[in-house]
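Thread: "does anyone have the structure for this chain?"

Original post by V.I.:
We have the sequence but no experimental structure in hand. Need at least a predicted one for the grant figures.
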Amino acid sequence: YNIEDMKLLDLVKQRYSCRSYQENSVEQEKLDYVMECVRFAPSAVNKQPWMFRVVKNETDKTKLQECYNREWFATAPMYIICSILHDEEWVRSDGKHHGDIDIAIAVEHLCLAATEQGLATCWVCNFDAEKCKKLFGLSENEDPAVLIPIGYAADEPKEKKRKEIDEICK
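Reply from O.Q.:
Generated one for you, tokens below.
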């Protein structure tokens, strides 16, 4: 792909859940670009109830790997802990909290921006959130919702099985 010619649909089709990473570190300029895209993600009432923690050093990477002990996860050169700040999230009049929706929008901005920069990611939600909270000293109001390994892919995307448009749109 020529980045200048990339269309959103092409980018969305290119993004996949990478489960093997090269050892190469992510350039700071690319990380800065990705996080700037996250910064502009929309949120309910523009509350931006999130915190993104970049995990690069070996000590913190090892701690995070304790929260999700998978061989493939350990291949990533860095991670981003994506948390909801519950005391900042908007709450609808019927009591529905929107932090989970807001973090999902921001994380997908992260994943698409990373893809655009030639990087790979994977959504990891099946991790020990309480252990993560303790190991990283997160406040009571901060809920780690998603872990994103990020780096250069060492695998190839598998074909995505997608429902047909008439199965999801009426």
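V.I.: this helps a lot. The beta strands are 50-55, 78-85, 120-121, 142-151.
O.Q.: and The CA atoms of residues 16 and 91 lie 32 Å apart.
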